[in-house]
Amino acid sequence: MENKEWSAEELRLRAESYCASAERCEQDVQLKLRQWMGNKPETENEQDICSDIITHLYKAGFMDNERYCRAFVHDKLAYQHWGRMKIQYMLHAKKLPEAAISTAMDELDENEYQKVLEHTAEQFIRLNRKKYTANPDCLYRFLAQRGFTTQEIRQFLQK
């Protein structure tokens, strides 16, 4: 926890640096600003400071909802092997605009998506051979927890 009192200018510079290091959404930045302010109950002045900083970050190009959604979709698919349902759910949980989410999901490469589904399923089977042999439904449940749709799982299992 931080003990220092930060000025509005220092908070703005820290927020810029925070956003420059990786794609961030508004919710992430608000949480970080609150943390820097000491997690104390926000006064009206502090709310105004946060609002001004976030507005500045959007105008200066440090934050962009569509860019964030595209990066989130790519990273969660490529590195964590999530399915489209889980990705969409997590984007909605971050209170991002529906239009930005839809645009990012529409840009999802179907070939890459199928490869991730197949790789994830094959890896699960390889690591859980005994469990899978005894109960093939465990693969279905695992893939559903990863966010793959029922239709996608059925198509994979029919191959």
Structure report:
By secondary structure, the chain is mainly alpha-helical. The protein is 74% helix and 0% strand. The chain has ten helices and no strands. α1 crosses α2 (26-36) and α4 packs across α5 (84-93). The chain starts with 7 loop residues before the first helix and ends with a helix.
Please give a quick description of this structure.
This protein is mainly alpha-helical and 159 residues long. The chain is built from 10 helices and no strands. The protein has 3 domains: 8-59, no CATH class; 65-106; 110-158.
Order of helices and strands: HHHHHHHHHH
- What would you report as the Rg, rounded to the nearest angstrom? 20 Å
Percent of residues in helices comes to: over 70%
- Major sheet, described briefly? none
In DSSP terms (H or I, runs of 4 or more residues), the helix count works out at 10
Count of all domains: 3
Structural class based on helices, strands and sheet pairing = mainly alpha
How far the N terminus sits from the C terminus, by CA atoms, comes to: 52 Å
Mean pLDDT: 92
**Per the principal axes of the C-alpha atoms, what is the gross shape?**
elongated
Strand content: under 5%
Question: How many DSSP E strands?
Answer: 0
Q: Unreliable segments (pLDDT under 50, ≥5 consecutive)? A: none
List the keywords.
159 residues; mainly alpha; 10 helices; 0% strand
Chart the SSEs and their pairings.
Layout: H1 8-21, H2 26-36, H3 44-59, H4 65-80, H5 84-93, H6 98-106, H7 110-127, H8 129-134, H9 137-145, H10 150-158
Helix pairs in contact: 1-2, 1-3, 4-5, 4-6
